[in-house]
């Protein structure tokens, strides 16, 4: 009886493409199910040949089952590839975007240092800015889109700035803000900016997390999908 069941199972899964371990698990489950059916039929008074034949008929023709199994494995394979491709694409896109944002952030850092030292030069050793100096400072700040606030102190120990210029920051800008300080012999300048490098790192983290989630789904599909298909029969 076991030999007949083995031959039938091998015929069903012949030329089936998929994970070898999953195929072996499917074969074993199918064989066990057939054996249980045969034993139940024999207990009802049927001969072994009759029981085996009826059990096979309940499963269906070999060609039909083979086509069904191949379709299921093909769908599983394609869906798994689709999920993994999306995860890989998401990681690549976010990684490239993050690198570009980080490069821009480094360039921004150099630019903001120039702005800070230019402001420091305008202020000089004065304890307040003249109207003309304020205008020059505002012009410098208007040339950038990422500086939210600029403050000038007489020195690093001063509690209150003698000049402050602020721009209204939207929620994203305030969320990714950072402060940078620049000191000279004459004064101390603090710039509060929207640090795009924080955005780049966050974007990279989102991409990596998305990849891990989709990779886990792909892994779960390849590991457990075959078992679930067998259990649903």
Task: Enumerate the strands of the largest sheet in spatial order, edge to edge or round the barrel.
Answer: 2-1-4-3
Task: Based on Cα principal axes, name the global outline.
Answer: rod-shaped
Q: Roughly what fraction of the amino acids lie in strands?
A: 5-15%
- Measure the end-to-end span: 22 Å
- Low-confidence residue ranges: 228-233
Please report the total strand number as a whole number.
4
In this structure, how is the largest beta sheet organized? 4 strands, antiparallel
Report the structural category: alpha+beta
Radius of gyration computed on alpha carbons? 35 Å
Helix/strand order: HHHHHEEHEEH
Number of helices: 7
Tell me the helix content: over 70%
Arithmetic mean pLDDT: 82
State the gist of this model:
With 233 residues, the protein is α+β, with helices and mostly antiparallel strands. The protein has helices at 2-13, 20-43, 48-59, 62-123, 131-142, 171-175, 196-232, and strands spanning 147-153, 163-166, 177-183, 188-194. A hairpin with a 4-residue loop joins strand 3 (177-183) and strand 4 (188-194).
């Amino acid at each position: 009886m076991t030999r007949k069941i083995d031959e039938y199972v091998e015929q069903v899964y012949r030329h089936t493409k998929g994970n070898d371990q999953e195929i072996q698990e499917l074969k074993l489950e199918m064989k066990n199910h057939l054996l249980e059916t045969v034993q139940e039929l024999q207990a009802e008074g049927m001969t072994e040949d009759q029981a085996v034949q009826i059990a096979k008929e309940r499963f269906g023709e070999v060609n039909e089952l083979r086509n069904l199994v191949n379709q299921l494995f093909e769908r599983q394979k394609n869906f798994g590839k689709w999920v993994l491709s999306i995860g890989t694409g998401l990681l690549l896109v976010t990684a490239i975007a993050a690198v570009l944002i980080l490069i821009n952030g480094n360039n921004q850092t150099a630019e903001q240092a120039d702005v800070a030292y230019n402001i420091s030069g305008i202020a000089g050793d004065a304890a307040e800015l003249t109207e003309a100096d304020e205008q020059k400072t505002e012009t410098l700040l208007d040339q950038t889109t990422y500086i939210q606030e600029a403050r000038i102190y007489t020195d690093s120990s001063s509690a209150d700035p003698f000049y402050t210029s602020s721009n209204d920051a939207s929620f994203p800008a305030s969320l990714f803000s950072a402060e940078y300080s620049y000191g000279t012999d004459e004064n101390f300048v603090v710039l509060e900016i929207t640090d795009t490098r924080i955005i780049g790192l966050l974007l990279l983290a989102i991409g990596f997390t998305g990849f891990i989630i989709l990779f886990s789904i792909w892994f779960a599909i390849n590991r457990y999908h075959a078992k679930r298909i067998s259990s649903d029969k």
